[in-house]
């Protein structure tokens, strides 16, 4: 289990006001919080804990009601509502996109389905090492490891010479449970997103990248500051409080100096 250092957690916590969550229809009912799963016979302790957490989690229910493929959608929604990053017409690359809830949000906010007549139409490209079931408005590259040269080639080919307005990465390795090792593995994925963003983004673009906090966090932040005007660590409320998960939001890509 990854636990965010307390001092960092308080400085990262997004101050999303309650009314945003209420407006989105969230209810933290006492019933939901106290719900205890029954019929757990034969399940392992970790499986019981997972089930209890799912049942107590208002975002799980909300994701079902909103037809999002998973609760992660609300992390992106919350970050975008606060920082106003996404807009119609943008070209966004979604790294580690399966099952697809971030892509669903990206389609809505970039107008990739052209639902907002008269507004520019966006492009959403989703990549994952797992298969991704089709999402209307999204170009999908499934079964592809983002860190490989082949992935880069496929992405460049579907981008057809367009520069990215944004690269978002929710990529996470399979957790081993060894905190330092998991941190290193996710940092490796984060750096591959940073490299790709640096090579494909337009000046002014943004990058949102997930991390599990640890020893190399500060080095990554420093590296991001070389390429972006503003770098901010954020932890949305939809990110579980007992997890070391955090995101770096890097805005204002400076371009690659030759
Ligand atoms: C937390 S999930 C992403 C959830 C997604 N943002 C959503 O909203 O549906 C993390 C994803 O990262 C993917 N991933 C991990 N390593 C990867 C890699 N090397 N290349 C591509 N995808 C990777 C995993 O397969 C997994 O689907």
UniProtKB/TrEMBL annotation:
Q: What is this protein called?
A: rRNA methyltransferase 2, mitochondrial
- Record carries keyword S-adenosyl-L-methionine: yes
Keywords, comma-separated and alphabetical: Methyltransferase, rRNA processing, S-adenosyl-L-methionine, Transferase
- On whether RNA-binding is a keyword of this UniProt record, the answer is no
Q: Which family does it belong to?
A: Belongs to the class I-like SAM-binding methyltransferase superfamily. RNA methyltransferase RlmE family.
Q: Which domain of life is it from?
A: Eukaryota
Pfam annotation, one family: FtsJ
Which segment of the chain is annotated as a signal peptide? none
PANTHER family attached to this UniProt entry: RIBOSOMAL RNA METHYLTRANSFERASE, RRNA METHYLTRANSFERASE 2, MITOCHONDRIAL
Q: Which Gene3D superfamilies match?
A: Vaccinia Virus protein VP39 (3.40.50.150)
The Ribosomal RNA methyltransferase FtsJ domain covers 68-253
InterPro entries in the record, alphabetically? RNA_methyltr_RlmE, RNA_MeTrfase_FtsJ_dom, rRNA-MeTfrase_E, SAM-dependent_MTases_sf
Query: Organism, per UniProt?
Result: Timema podura (Walking stick)
Q: Which SUPFAM superfamilies match?
A: S-adenosyl-L-methionine-dependent methyltransferases
């Amino acid at each position: 289990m990854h636990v965010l250092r307390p001092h960092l957690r308080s400085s990262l916590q997004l101050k999303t006001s309650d009314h945003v969550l209420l407006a989105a229809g969230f209810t933290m009912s006492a019933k939901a919080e106290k719900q205890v799963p029954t019929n757990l016979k034969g399940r392992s302790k970790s499986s019981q804990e997972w089930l209890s957490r799912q049942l107590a989690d208002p975002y799980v229910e909300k994701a079902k009601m909103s037809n999002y493929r998973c609760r992660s959608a609300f992390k992106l929604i919350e970050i975008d509502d606060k920082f106003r990053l996404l807009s119609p017409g943008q070209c966004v690359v979604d790294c580690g996109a399966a099952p697809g809830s971030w892509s669903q949000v990206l389609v809505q906010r970039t107008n990739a389905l052209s639902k907002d007549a008269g507004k520019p139409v966006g492009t959403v490209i989703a990549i994952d090492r797992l298969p991704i079931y089709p999402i209307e408005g999204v170009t999908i590259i499934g079964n592809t490891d983002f860190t490989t040269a082949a992935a880069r080639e496929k992405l460049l080919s579907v981008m057809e010479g367009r520069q990215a307005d944004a690269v978002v990465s929710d990529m996470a390795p399979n957790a081993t449970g060894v905190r330092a090792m998991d941190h290193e593995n996710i940092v490796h994925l984060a750096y591959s997103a940073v490299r790709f963003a640096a090579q494909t983004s337009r000046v002014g673009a943004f990058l949102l990248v997930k991390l599990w906090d640890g020893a190399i966090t500060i080095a990554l932040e420093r590296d991001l500051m070389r390429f972006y005007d503003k770098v901010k660590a954020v932890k949305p409320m939809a990110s579980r409080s007992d997890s070391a998960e955090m995101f770096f939001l890097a805005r204002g890509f400076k371009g690659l100096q030759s």
